[in-house]
Amino acid sequence: LEHSGLVEGRDDRFRAAPLAMSEARRLYPAAVVLESVAVRRSPRFGEEKLRALREANAALRAAAGDAAAASAADDEFHRRLTADCGNEELIAALLPIKRALLRYELVYMDDPERVGRSADQHDEIVAALERGDHAEAAQLLRGNLAHGLPDLQKAVEDESGSAPAVT
Questions:
Q1: How far apart are CA 64 and CA 57, in angstroms?
Q2: What's the pLDDT tens digit per position in 97-129?
Q3: Is residue 151 within 8 Å of 108, Cβ to Cβ?
Q4: For residues 66 and 101, what is the distance between their CA atoms, to the nearest angstrom?
Q5: How would DSSP label each residue in 75-108?
Q6: Tens-digit pLDDT profile for residues 64-90
Q7: Which residue from 16, 25, 4, 9 is spatially nearest to 105, judged by alpha carbons?
Q8: 51 and 34 in contact (C-beta within 8 Å)?
Q9: Any idea what DSSP says for residue 6?
Q10: What backbone phi and psi angles, to 5 degrees, belong to 40?
Q11: SS3 7
Q12: Closest by Cα among 42, 33, 57, 52 to 141
């Protein structure tokens, strides 16, 4: 794991390796495009699916202050958002990208203010889906995900005390 860059050794202990911002710059645009397409291709969200999205978002909001729980709740929201798009190839392409980004989400979700902003954006996405406006929901999703990269870069900088190495 250390050789692959997933963990780093520190004082006989291991922790998740810091994010190489170049990796995030490659992964975020793909996640934005694939998730947006998945939302646009999804059939109309019925009340049960909307309720499931609201529950996942409520779990995200309630987890502010617990980065691991917030990360899991955010992942669940996005998984439910894209699950029924009807395109297995798209989901197969999206899952490894999302999993790679999740490896850094604990840094991002460590700030309750960022968690609250993300949950507010999720509320807007759900409201658009409730109106049946998948194009607006996809646009809002792009905004939600697009803010992730600069926020993540700031979180990494704050954690390390300096700007991360850009490769």
A1: 11
A2: 887 777 667 777 888 998 999 999 999 999 999
A3: yes
A4: 18
A5: HHHHHHHHTTSS-HHHHHHHHHHHHHHHHHHHHH
A6: 999 999 999 999 999 999 999 999 999
A7: 16
A8: no
A9: S
A10: -65, -35
A11: strand
A12: 33
pLDDT at residue 165 tops 70: no
Q: What is the pLDDT of residue 14?
A: 61
Residue with tokens 């691991």: 68
Alpha-carbon distance values, 120 to 26, 74, 106, 124 (Å): 26, 12, 19, 7
How many other CB atoms are found less than 10 A from the CB of residue 138? Answer: 22
Name the burial class of residue 75, with classes exposed (0-12), middle (13-18) and buried (19+) by CB atoms within 10 angstroms of its CB.
Answer: middle
- Percentage of the chain surpassing pLDDT 90? 49
Residue 164 confidence class, pLDDT cut points 50, 70, 90: very low
What is the radius of gyration, based on Cα positions, of the chain? 16
* pLDDT for 27: 78
Cα separation of 84 and 90, whole Å?
11
Residues in the chain: 167
Alpha carbons 153 and 42: distance in angstroms, whole number = 31
User: Residue 147 phi/psi, 5° resolution?
Assistant: -70, -20
Query: DSSP string covering 11-50, please?
Result: TTEEEEPPPPHHHHHHHHHHHHHHHHHHHHHSPPP-HHHH
